[in-house]
Amino acid sequence: MGTPKRQANPIISSSLSEAAGQIVLDGLDAGFDIEDIAPDKGPKIRGEAKFSQENLDELVNLSNKGTPIPGQSLTRDTDNPYPWETPPEFTNPREALDEIVASIMQPEAMKNIVAALAQGAAVADLGTAILYAKFNEGKINPDVMMMLAEPVMYTIMAIGEEANIKYNIEGDDLDEFDDEDYIEEEERKLNEFKNALTDIKKGATKNIEPSKIDTNVVPESILAQVKEKGPEIKSLLSKGEE
Amino acid sequence: MGLFKKLKKAFKKVTGAVKKVVKKVVKGVKKVVKKIGSSKILKALAIAAAVVVTGGAALTAFGGTGALASSQFGSWMMSASQSVLGGTAFGTGATSTIGKLAQGAGNFLAKTAAKPFGAVGGALGSTARVGANILTGQSAFAAGPAAGSPVPFSGAALTGQRDMSNFTDAELKKEFNLTDEELGYFKEDILAQEGSVIAKDASSFAETVVDPSKGVASSPKPGFWQSGAGKFVADVGTGVVKSVATGAAMQYIEGDPEQRGSMSGAAYEGAEFMDPLKVYAAQQGINTDSIYEHMMYGNADPSTVYGNELYRQQTIGVA
Q1: Are B66 and B92 contained in the same domain?
Q2: How many domains, chain A?
Q3: How far is residue B53's CA from residue B32's CA, in Å, rounded to a whole number?
Q4: 3-state secondary structure A7-67
């Protein structure tokens, strides 16, 4: 286990992702091991979305219920507005975030979130649902709702990580990061191979000096050809002429 | 397109953008730290972000067996924030007159800048006002918006919370460049404000300005302010403190700036260009007039540290 050699550097960023990235790098730089930051807890639960006819039917039924008639909202009694038509409860995003995170951190809510992630629900969808519900309740306005997307998504991701779930971030992207790792690894290996070939090629052509070739090993007739065509001789692995 | 459809579309864009940023940061970390899988980095990011979002509360929110609860890293990363909250900008060992003043006022200001509305005792109103002023980019010692609001730390704002008894007349004259007449005027002026000051004699001018020791429970523990960045902020803060102290003194000497035409408080030495938040905001390209529109994140983020308390401050009657 790594022990920090120094204090944490103060970090500020307008993006939570970037702030978290900098903090992780700072931690690694200070002497922490990646295992200290993100301990391995064994194989993860795969949050794979499974097709369910029942759920699809429910969705179809919901969408068949119809949409409001254009202008319908304008016919509502102004004395009884919807909650989102009234001034929001929280105009300060920081306050709103505290309220939302506190509600997410409730044991019952966390249980539901973990269950949803394990069943394949995406972090973005859960975040959207939570924030949209808060907007519907008149707690926040649409601007604050957008601003809180990132922190709420990260909170849900942290819950997923704590529950050791391999979750979808947006849509069905369970293995996206792993696939990218695989592609990167392949590319890296290919590059290494290419570099090795180049080195061999360079080494092979550079080291041919006819004067140093042992006549006991190479027949004289071939040696004569080598002396004659020395610079033109190509490596066995070089590209042939088309 | 209806409002809800628009919202849905916009939200999809935002969540898509968040994912892109996450991927970008994962790649960025991977470039620096080789041979670590993206999933591992994603986990580290999620943990770090949760700690930042919850201000450390996530450390225990997941229960005693969670990775965060037992994580040394979690406590370590929030230590920078705690150092800022500690507000020990100038230590406690100052012996010179201005050192003591700066130490007291500096700790007070550091506390204001770090956690403006917590544990500041009877000077809450003035501190809150200074904190709010710093945050909104005004002169630190501007009066509040409420009608008849006094200038922060002025005689009207402070009532019996001054303890700068180590200042002698000679020191006062030297530090604030006062003539005998000015000093006399000051003493007369202060003593005329019956019930609003502790100072009752000429040698305790200091008692009439600020009560740093009562306002702040300072700690000698080194922290953010002793670090490279912290030192820079502290140095800037010292400038502000000095000007604040000078400005506050001049305030007393010259009376109400609106009546006398003098500059008040921090504006005396152009502190509006020097205070830490201004510097921070300038670096981030943020207009301090609209600082509330910017959500900031990190273990030393001022808006996190200011947090919701700003909205709970008493703005009328105490300024």
Answers
A1: no
A2: 3
A3: 24
A4: CCCCCCECCHHHHHHHHHHHHHHCCCCHHHHCCCCCCCEECCCCCCHHHHHHHHHHHCCCC
Tell me the average pLDDT across B45-72: 63
List CB contacts (< 8 A) between A27 and chain B. 48, 73, 76-77
The pTM (predicted TM-score) of the whole model is: 0.56
Instruction: Note down the domain range covering A19.
Output: 1-39
Min Cα separation B174/chain A (Å): 38
Mean pLDDT by 10 residues, chain A (242 residues): 76 83 86 82 81 84 81 85 90 85 83 87 90 92 90 90 87 80 81 83 66 70 74 71 62
Q: What residue in A sits closest to B228 (Cα-Cα)?
A: A9
Predicted local confidence at residue A215, as pLDDT: 67
A130 and A170, same domain (yes or no): yes
In-domain check, residue A238:
no
Amino acid at the residue B227: S
Domain that holds residue B54: 23-70
Q: Domains in chain B: how many in total? A: 2
- Most confident segment among A53-57, A174-178, B144-148, B178-182: A53-57
Q: Using DSSP, state whether B234 is helix, strand or coil.
A: helix
Q: How far is CA A199 from the centre of its chain?
A: 36
The secondary structure of residue A170, as a DSSP letter, is S
ipTM of this predicted structure:
0.74
Question: B295 and A12: CB-CB below 8 Å?
Answer: no
